[in-house]
Every structure is written in C-alpha cells, then in structure tokens.
Specification:
Distance between the termini of chain A: 50 Å
Strand content of chain A: under 5%
InterPro entries (chains A, B): Homeodomain-like_sf, HTH-type_TetR-like_transc_reg, HTH_TetR, Tet_transcr_reg_TetR-rel_C_sf, TetR_C
CATH class of the largest domain in chain A: Mainly Alpha
GO molecular function, one term (chains A, B): DNA-binding transcription factor activity
Organism (chains A, B): Planomonospora sphaerica
Oligomer: homodimer
Structural class of chain A: mainly alpha
Protein name (chains A, B): TetR family transcriptional regulator
Number of domains of chain A: 2
Helix content of chain A: over 70%
Keywords (chains A, B): DNA-binding, Transcription, Transcription regulation
Radius of gyration of chain A: 19 Å
Largest sheet of chain A: none
C-alpha cells in the first residue's frame, strides 16, 4: 500500500477513536472516512485492534523523534516534554488519551498498548546508548525504569491530578531521576 | 449516617463501578444493592460523581495505611508495593482501574481523581515528614514529585506494559529515585 494512502487510513482510524472512543471505532467508518474500500483495509489489517495497533505505532501524529541535545539531561528533558505534549496538545492528546484509556477497559487492546510502549522504548534506547558512551549513566541503570518513572509521572500529573506540566516540571523530574533525593549526594549536577 | 451503613453504600458503589463501568453505575443501582433508600443516598451525595468521590476516598477497600518501617527506603518500597497491590489485586484492582480509566473519559470525574490523589498525598506526606526529621531527604525534595515518579512507574508498568511488578521492581524503582542514575555518585546507598 502506498505510504500516503496508509497514513490516510491511520488518520481516519485515530480521528474516529478520538471522536467516538474504541466502541465507536469501526472498519466501516474508517473505510468511509478514508475513501478506501473496506475489503482492502481488512486485507492489510485483519481486525479493528490490529488496525488500531498499526495506526498508533506508525501514524505520523504520534511519531516519536528521539532527541539528541548532546547531554542525557537535555535529552530526558526533551523526552518529558514530548510525553507531556502527547498527553496535552491536540490532536495527539485526544488520540493518546482515548487509546490509553481504552486499553484499560478492553483486554484485547492490552497487546496494542504493549506494542506501542515497546516500540517507543526501542526508539528511546538510542538516547541511553549515547549517554552510556558519554559516561553519563551509572552501571546497571535501566532505560525502561527511567522512562517508566518519567513517563508515568507525566501521566499521573496531567491525567489524574489535572495539573499542568511545564518546563519546570520536566527539569525537576529529570533532576530527581539523575541525582536522586538522598542528601548524601548533592542533588544538582549543574 | 452510621459508618457501617455508609461503608455498605460505598461498597455497592465501587462494586457496580467495577462490574458495569461508570456508565452502568446509577444511584438506583446503589440503592438496590445496598438496601438504602435512593432519596437517603441523594440527601448525602447530590450526584453520582459525588457519591463515587466519597466512595473512592473513604471506602475501606482503597484505604491507604502509610507505612512506617523506620527508613525512607523501606517506607517508599512499601508504598510502591501498596500501589502495585491496588492496581493488580482484586477486588481493589477492579475498582481502581475502572475508576481511573473512567476518569480519562469523563471530564466530570476529573475532579474526583484530583481529590483522590490529593487525599492520598496528604496521607503519604507523613512518610516524608518522618524522613525529613531523620535527615534522609535532600533539601527541596518534593513529596508529590517522588510519589508521581514512583506511582506513575507502577501504573505504566502494570496497566500499559502489562508487565508484573514485584519486590525487585519496588526496590529498583526506589533505589533509582533515592540515588539517581548519574555515575558521579554511587547508586546504592546500602
């Protein structure tokens, strides 16, 4: 399938998800909105969940461009900013919050969420490889743990506490994870 | 209202939420299941959202008993374990995941989620007050940030990645937040 047509299908899929929720998302609806025949869509993606998984991972709107600022601190602050934007700025926020909310309620979407986060971690790992080469990471530091702490904090702050996440939050979250909160060591490396 | 009767209403509210979702939760249903008159329920809680907020914050099933192990590390590991249990062990997990999932989709529940997390943080703050008195916290360390990093990581790992969260996870998450991942300082304080 031509990449441009594929993006049109993904865009229709995510638009319908954001507007109508997972219950209201149908392959018929995607066919109608994208102007692509329903049987063509089914030939590429055998189910609604498969189509949604592909759209979440490959749609341009949710693409993660791993930052390369020259320092682990800068890269992590940029990643926190990307997660915050994903959860707060339309149209990505409507899609991301609808998809992640749906994953909680629909067991058949659990695998979609898993694949989405595995894909993002694979991209984010470049940040940690570069940091490792620059000697900025302690031995045994775990990229998944670092991203779960930072990404989870953004989710909790934005979605559950309803509080804003700004550059000050990103700097403080990253400072905490890089330096820790124990007094035995100075917290700020700058 | 008698505390025991109140707990019966809360239990009916959370049970219906877990079984039928927020859409399927009605004050009629709560009245039927708890055997308490509908008008009595409305006299105490003027809306479905108000009833759910009270149930989430005051029901015994979700009560948070802040740990007091004698060290910040021990207390934080216990708190991570409590959050993990809340999100994985029935019946609390069915309630918590349904409530938090619903908060994503229903703007009128945003305030309920905010109150739930504010209430929990107020309880958790005792852990940080004791740690501060013991000299275990760096100046300026922010309890809300620490809890959002740790609680968010559990949420992301359990709900979105579908991965288990065990004692090893709790220890590693707490070690990361206490000691940081920068190599300038040894990671393990033990």
């Amino acid at each position: 399938m031509a990449p441009r047509r594929e993006q049109e299908i993904f865009s229709a899929t995510l638009g319908l998800l954001a507007e109508k929720g997972y219950e209201g998302l149908t392959v018929e609806g995607v066919a109608e909105r994208s102007g692509v025949n329903k049987t063509t869509i089914y030939r590429w993606w055998p189910s609604k969940a498969a189509l949604l998984a592909a759209a979440l991972i490959e749609a341009d709107v949710l693409t993660l461009d791993p930052p390369d600022t020259g320092s682990l601190r800068g890269d992590l602050e940029a990643l926190v900013g990307q997660v915050a934007a994903l959860l707060t700025r339309p149209p990505a926020a409507d899609v991301a919050v609808a998809a992640l909310g749906a994953a909680v309620h629909h067991p058949e979407l659990a695998d979609v969420a898993r694949r989405f986060f595995a894909d993002r971690l694979a991209r984010e790992e470049r940040v940690f490889e570069r940091a490792g080469r620059r000697g900025e990471l302690a031995d045994g530091a775990d990229p998944m743990m670092i991203m779960d702490l930072l990404g989870g904090a953004v989710w909790l702050r934005v979605v559950f506490r309803g509080l804003p996440v700004d550059e000050g939050f990103a700097a403080e979250a990253v400072r905490t994870v890089l330096g820790g909160v124990s007094p035995e060591r100075p917290r700020d490396l700058d």
